[in-house]
Amino acid sequence: MRILAAMSGGVDSAVAAARAVDAGHEVVGVHLALSRAGGTLRAGSRGCCTIEDAMDARRAADKLGMPFYVWDFSERFRDDVIDDFVSEYRAGRTPNPCMRCNEKIKFAALLERAVELGFDAVCTGHYATLVDGPDGLELHRASDSAKDQSYVLGVLTAEQLAHTYFPLGDTPSKALVRAEAAERGLTVAQKPDSHDICFIPDGDTRGWLAERVGAEQGEILDRSGAVIGRHDGAHAFTVGQRKGLQLGVPAADGKPRFVLEVRPVSNTVVVGPKEALATAEIAGERHSWAGRAPAESAFGCDVQIRAHSDPVPARATVADGWVTVVPDEPFDGVAPGQTAVLYDGTRVLGQFTIARTVSAVPANV
């Protein structure tokens, strides 16, 4: 096959590309330049997609003897990921930019161009596996549960899966990937994993958002509607947050309070006891299936609401364009804007963006 290897400059994508070469494929490396923000142009930036990363990717490609290119996707990244991130926070939701990047950039824009250029598949260093099932190609968890990235790939469609290649999915551990990189003489063997949001390299998400959304003082309310504090901008809060609330009125029971709801229209934040974070139902209408859609409109599944959270057994219902999920045991601290990924065992069924939540605890508690 002709393979386009997406090379981030990290160890995973470098080893994935190397394995594609070893498998006898015709491989071309490409690094995506996604951001033109100043902070991403200096060595030592804490995100990914820096100039330093591009240089690391080129060195890996040279070592593997493959052609290498840098493609500028910064405008599309700005439109589909950064602007989406800002608008979601402005609407009081908590988005996952990595999920949106996979959906709109790595497996949409990149894959579209790859197919146009005659490539059969895009290779990445994601930890996930593809399985030929009775109804077509299926997306499954990686063998290393600690590194499994199937959650952030839950946005992929059947057509996109047909043009993807995940060489690392069956690798038992990240340590083995690093050891393999060292044996191959790849300089990224011990390079630390990227962290933080790549377009906010200093990690100050609150300050970054304040510059774009604006900081306007508002009220902090308890569940009864009583004013118990003030804030400098609702965008700085997310459901489940405990620190930084600066409440002027202590709770009657003396226990800490957590953010339960962000209301952007009124610029208010609602707080309450930890028990009120329990969520009995979630629903969303922006959904997709990683393969064939479920045959039944109601079905049992496991649901994961964060990249590193445990899956929760639940019952899902699809009706009138919405997916509604009722867990066997309440979720803890779910925020609108998060992504819920549905599983059948290790198989990814699909995903939806959470638009509505129902608390398991009455408001008068």
Task: Summarize this structure as a short list of keywords or feature phrases.
365 residues, alpha+beta, SH3 type barrels, Elongation Factor Tu (Ef-tu), domain 3, 3 domains
Query: What is the name of the CATH class of the largest domain?
Result: Alpha Beta
CATH level-four homologous superfamily name of the largest domain: HUPs
The largest pleated sheet is described as: 9 strands, antiparallel
What proportion of the residues is helical, as a percent range? 10-25%
Helix and strand run: EHEHEHHEEEHEHHEEEEEEEEEEEEE
How many helix segments?
Answer: 7
* Structural class by secondary-structure content: alpha+beta
Beta fraction of the residues?
25-35%
Count of DSSP strands: 20
Query: Terminal Cα separation, in Å?
Result: 60 Å
Mean pLDDT: 89
At CATH level 2, the architecture of the largest domain is 3-Layer(aba) Sandwich
Our count of domains comes out at: 3
Uncertain parts: 38-46
**Global morphology:** globular
Gyration radius (Cα, Å) is 22 Å
CATH topology of the largest domain: Rossmann fold
- Oligomer status: single chain
Domain tRNA-specific 2-thiouridylase MnmA-like C-terminal: 281-350
Function: Catalyzes the 2-thiolation of uridine at the wobble position (U34) of tRNA, leading to the formation of s(2)U34.
Pfam families: tRNA_Me_trans, tRNA_Me_trans_C, tRNA_Me_trans_M
Enzyme class: transferase
